[in-house]
Amino acid sequence: xxxxWKCALCGGEIVEGQRFTFLSGLGAVHNECLIVSVLSKxxxxxxxxxxxxxxxLLYAIIxxxxxxxxxxxxxxxxxxxxxxxxxxxxxxxxxxxxxxVFKQAA
Length: 106
Ligand SMILES: [Zn+2]
What we know:
Largest sheet: 2 strands, antiparallel
Radius of gyration: 15 Å
Number of domains: 1
Bound molecules: zinc ion
Number of strands: 4
Number of helices: 3
Strand order of the largest sheet: 1-2
């Protein structure tokens, strides 16, 4: 993670290892803050489904970063990093969908 980000919902810092999501037009938000914010609105089944799959990918990204650090050879590190970037792209697609549903509920 480059630099430090603030959560657009609670104003707190987003620390390395914490799960966060980018919402377009809003910025980075803690995943916990997003869930709390959505709970205070009308939590649709669409949003529950999206948050669920988002959680899985965010968890995977953190695990991949840990595995990359743990791996011994540069070759294996770069394979893990490459796959992690693919997962980040997928997470980006889900956060776009979350942004759409989030704005509808706002
Ligand atoms: Zn927050």
